[in-house]
């Protein structure tokens, strides 16, 4: 199976670095961004099989990032929202992001990996 390239976005550098290390150990190619603007620039240069993003970020938030990414670069990219917001589903639905999956912070590695494998269509061996 070809290696999947993921884009991970969070304004906290420690979070994206941790996610990058965890996901690279699982065999993914992982690009990180600490702002939505940086993420859009990366998406201009690369094709991603999945977006993992926080919602609350300064400047452009995760809601706007997902919409812009899908509008301009990847209309059907799977999205995993990793957030500390309790129950963001109503707001995601309100802005038309019905199909985004949600993982609340703090999370455990096994749950994160299982969610990503599901979204990119890989069997989950866990």
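^ structure tokens above, recovered residues below v
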């Amino acid at each position: 199976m070809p290696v999947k390239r993921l884009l991970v976005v969070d304004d906290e550098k420690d979070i994206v670095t941790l996610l990058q290390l965890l996901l690279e150990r699982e065999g993914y190619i992982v690009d990180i961004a600490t702002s939505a603007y940086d993420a859009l620039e990366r998406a201009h240069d690369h094709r991603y099989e999945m977006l993992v993003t926080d919602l609350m970020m300064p400047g452009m938030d995760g809601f706007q990032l997902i919409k812009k990414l899908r509008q301009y670069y990847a209309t059907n990219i799977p999205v995993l929202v990793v957030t500390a917001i309790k129950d963001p589903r109503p707001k995601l639905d309100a802005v038309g992001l019905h199909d985004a999956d949600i993982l609340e912070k703090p999370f455990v590695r096994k749950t994160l990996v299982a969610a990503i494998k599901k979204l990119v269509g890989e069997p989950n061996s866990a």
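The chain has five helices and five strands.
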